[in-house]
Each structure stands twice: as C-alpha cells, then as structure tokens.
Design goal:
Elements (H helix, E strand, L loop, with lengths): L1 H11 L19 H11 L2 H22 L3 H29 L1 H20 L4 H29 L5 H5 L1 H20 L4 H10 L2 H10 L7 H6 L3 H11 L3 H15 L20 H7 L3 H19 L2 H6 L1 H7 L5 H29 L1 H27 L6 H20 L3 H9 L6 H30 L1 H22 L8 H4 L9 H16 L5
Helix pairs in contact: 2-6, 2-8, 3-6, 3-8, 3-9, 4-5, 4-6, 4-22, 5-6, 5-9, 5-10, 6-21, 6-22, 8-9, 8-18, 8-21, 12-13, 15-21, 15-22, 15-23, 17-18, 18-19, 18-20, 19-20, 19-23, 22-23
C-alpha cells in the first residue's frame, strides 16, 4: 500500500520531467507516381526479353521449317544484338533532341514493325529483315528505359526503380518461353511465326502507357523549361524539400542560375552538342573512370555467358540428356520462372544492400555455377551411358546461375550505369555502354555453337567461368558504391581508378559524424 502511494506521489510530482513516448522511425512511403512512371518506362525492356525467350524455342521449329544450317542458326540467334547497336547509338542523340518520353514511343513503334515482319516472314532472308528492324527497336528500348527512370526517381528508391528494366527483361523472357510452349503443338510452319509475331502486342500497350508519363525533369531543365521540370519534381519527390533540393542540384549541374524560374530566353536548349568530345576525346579523369566502370559492368554482364545460357538453354538441356522437344521447353520455362522470381530479391534490396555488394555476390555465385555446369556437361560428354546425377547437376547449376545473375549482375548493371554519368553526358554515355552490352552479347551468342564444337560444350562454360573471374576482380577494383547519393553528387565519387576508396571512406566518415552510424 505504502509502495503504491509512494509510486503515485512520484508520478504526480509536477517538477518531474515527463518521459517522452518512444516513436519508432517510420519508413518513408514509396512515391506511387514515380513508381508508375518507372513501371511504364521499363515496359520497353519486355521487347528485348520477349525476343530472347521466344527465339530460344522458336529456333527449333525455324530450323525444321526453313532447313537452315548451324551457322545460319547462330547468326539469326545473335544478329539482333548487333542490329541493336544502331538503335542504341542513335537513341542518345534522339532522346536529347525529342525527349526521353517520345523516344520510348519511337522504340515501341520500331519493334512493332519488326515483330510483324518476323511473323510474316516467308523465308530466311525476309526473317533477317525483320530481325534488323526489331533489333533497332531493342537498341532504343534498352538505352532509354533506365535513363528515364534514373532521372525521374527520388534518391531513396532510385536503385529499386532502375532495376525494373532488368525485371521486365526477365518477365519478357518468361513470356517468350510461355509463347513457345503455347504454340509448340501447332503446325511447324505456323507455330514459330505466331511465336515471333505476337511480340508486337507489348509494343502497342507500351505506346498507350506513355500517355500517362511526364517528361524527364532533367531533360526539361536542359531545354530551359524550368516550370515544367519543377512540377514533375514535385510529383516524383518524397517531400517538397527533396523536390527543391533536386531542382537546385539539376540547375547547378546544367549551369543555370539558381534564381532563374524560366530560362527559355537565357539558356540555349541542349540537344547533345559536344557530348562525344567530352566523353571520348577530352574526358575529365572522373568521366574517364565513369565510362570505364559503366562499359566494364556491361561487358562482364554479357561476357560471362548469360545470353548463351538463356538463348541456347534447350540445346544445353539436350546435351545434358533431355531429348524430347516438349520436355526441353518445360525445362526452359523453369529457367524463366526462376530468373523472374529471383530478380525480385535484388529489386527490393538494391537500395538497402548497395550496388557493389550485390555485384560481387552475384558474380561469385555465377562463377561457381558455371564451373558446376561445365563439370556436369563434361562428365556427360565423356560417358557412354546416362548419368542421372550429372544431369541433375546440369539442371541445378543452370537454375543457380540464372538466380545469381538475377540478384546482381542483371538488374544492378542497368541501375548502376544509368546513374553514374553526369547530366549532360547521361543519354549518349549510356548509349555507348548499351552498345558495349550488345556487342558482347552478339559475339557470344553468334559463336556459342562454334565454340562448343571446338572445345566441347563443357569447355565453353569453363571459358565463361574464367571471364567471370576476371569480371569479379574488375568489379572489386574499379567500381565504387553509389547507394544513397543524389545523381548530381555521384560524379564526385570518381576521378581516379585507385583513388575512389579514399573518397568513399571520407564520405562514410562524414555521414557517421552527421547521422550516427549510417553509411553510404
């Protein structure tokens, strides 16, 4: 009783300072408008994914119907990547001229025509024409979606949103595999044409979706349309303060006075003039380092064999002992489902874990998986009887390979390379690294059959594993972390290949001093 009374007196003491209730920090809500913009822009990536997925199965029936050789098969599988160079090279200047938004429409329109041409192709030559047109559209799509998303996204979820591009590539691959299976029982001369022609459908939805998208605020600033840019930033930022900060940073990066509200008459609109000089001929140390990192991550993404595994997965499963066409397509669909599901891990973790850690983990897992796949295929190739454990190893390592690719080297490559270029150089700089991506992919996919005939299919994957090892060293040595940095500050992380670690540590110390133990 006395204890209760004493307790009451203590609680009623007016001089006693009240203990504030603990209010745990709340996670900021994701900006739904920015999310919608990124979603719609990234739909362009479905175009590439669908083509990769559908061609892996359609080629079985094309080869039977048109009676093409292995060399022609290699060419038609990989030539789209070479053709896409034209689109990616032109997309940077196009998007600087007409804007990011209408470049997305242009990409969809070109691919629409290409898909129809492939669907109605009466022979191999006509099919190659369709591949050319579709390839140009794919080049445009691959370049513009990550750039637009990076420029619209608020800093807090930029990595999450820019990883959408690879998410939709994977979704497109899965749709291609499903299309293969759905039309596989039709007559041979009709089935593959429907598989390819139905790819025109996503392009139509893409063109309609663009109507709900705003223009990139950074492109608007470069054109001197500041009032429009501010309205877009207000809708795509997490707070009014962030909108004002982003607006100020963009104007500073564009060389526009901070007190300007509308500089159409004061500032000459930028359409990409002088960019090639600043990128390739007279780059600053920071730009040179940025270009090296961006091109490097795209090269090793492809050179470690991902498109060979995805495009030729039916052939890989056949070499592993699966002979029935339907069974091969089902196994290939399993690859598509696995790849699409696992990529969601990276999509939600890229802004928490960071780009660099996901890069290194992903590449290490890919190397181990490639070594396992190469070992399994080598054992099967040197055995006269069916080796069930080796077949299981091949299937498991193909699935683990695409899983590890999808947690890092797939989505993070696009997120990372689209955010590190300075504003004025971003569109055309990113078009260069997409060209590197497509060249690497084209060379690998157009030489895969020749390579495995020369060194065995197991030997081909040992080669890819070796390239992956070099890639891991490159990523560890050259690529700084960019998580949590505003786009206009990222250039400051670069400037010397071996100096970035000191800059990164200095940034961590500064953040720890001002915000406790949080680091970038």
């Amino acid at each position: 009783m006395a204890a209760d009374q004493s307790k009451t007196e203590k609680n009623d003491d007016p001089t006693r300072m009240p203990i504030p209730a603990f209010d745990p920090p709340r996670k900021p809500k994701r900006n739904k408008y920015a999310l919608l913009c990124a979603f719609l822009a990234s739909l362009t990536s479905i175009l590439l994914g669908y083509d990769i997925g559908v061609m892996s199965g359609a080629i079985i029936y094309i080869q039977k119907d048109l009676r093409i050789s292995d060399v022609q098969k290699e060419v038609i599988m990989g030539i789209l990547n070479v053709y896409s160079l034209i689109g990616s090279a032109a997309a940077g200047r196009t998007s600087d001229w007409i804007g990011r938004r209408y470049t997305i429409v242009f990409a969809g329109a070109i691919f629409f025509v290409g898909a129809l041409l492939m669907g109605f192709a009466p022979n191999y030559a006509f099919l190659m024409v369709g591949r050319f047109v579709a390839g140009v559209g794919v080049g445009y799509a691959l370049m513009i979606a990550p750039v637009y998303t990076a420029e619209v996204a608020p800093t807090s979820i930029r990595g999450f949103l820019t990883s959408f591009a690879d998410l939709f590539i994977n979704f497109g691959i899965l749709l291609g595999y499903v299309s293969n299976f759905a039309f596989s029982n039709l007559p041979t001369n009709l089935g593959w044409r429907l598989m390819l022609g139905i790819g025109a459908v996503p392009a139509v939805f893409l063109a309609l979706g663009v109507l709900a998208m705003p223009e990139s605020p950074r492109w608007l600033v470069m054109q001197g349309r500041l009032a429009e840019a501010k309205r877009v930033l207000d809708r795509t930022s997490d707070s009014p303060e962030e909108s004002s900060s982003r607006f100020s940073d963009i104007k500073q990066a564009a060389g526009i006075p901070q007190n300007s509200d509308d500089v159409v008459l004061l500032h000459k609109p930028h359409h990409g003039e002088g960019v090639w000089r600043d990128l390739l001929f007279r780059p600053t140390p920071a730009v040179r380092h940025i270009l090296l990192c961006a091109a490097g991550v795209h090269f090793f993404q492809q050179a470690s064999g991902i498109d060979s595994v995805v495009l030729y997965s039916p052939e890989i499963f056949e070499k592993a002992g699966i002979k029935n066409d339907t069974d091969k397509l089902l196994a290939t669909m399993a690859v598509g489902f696995t790849k699409t599901l696992v990529i969601l891990v990276a999509t939600f973790q890229v802004d928490k874990v960071g780009r660099r850690r996901l890069f290194l983990t992903s590449m290490a897992g890919m190397i181990v998986s490639l070594l396992g796949l190469a070992t399994g295929l080598t054992l099967i190739g040197h055995s006269d009887r069916k080796m069930v454990p080796a077949v299981g190893l091949c299937i498991a390592t193909v699935l683990s390979y695409v899983s590890f690719f999808s947690i890092g080297m797939g989505p993070v490559t696009f997120a990372y390379s689209s955010e590190i270029f300075p504003l004025r150089l971003r569109a055309q700089g990113f078009s260069i690294v997409i060209a590197v991506n497509r060249v690497a992919s084209g060379v690998l996919t157009m030489t895969f059959i020749s390579l495995y005939k020369a060194v065995s299919i197991g030997g081909a994957f040992f080669v890819y594993a070796g390239i992956g090892g070099v890639g891991w060293v490159f990523l560890y040595t050259f690529c700084p972390e960019t998580k949590g940095r505003p786009l206009e500050e990222i250039e400051g992380l670069f400037g010397g290949v071996f100096k970035w670690r000191r800059r990164e540590k200095a940034g961590q110390v500064e953040l720890e001093t001002t915000a406790g133990s949080s680091t970038v």
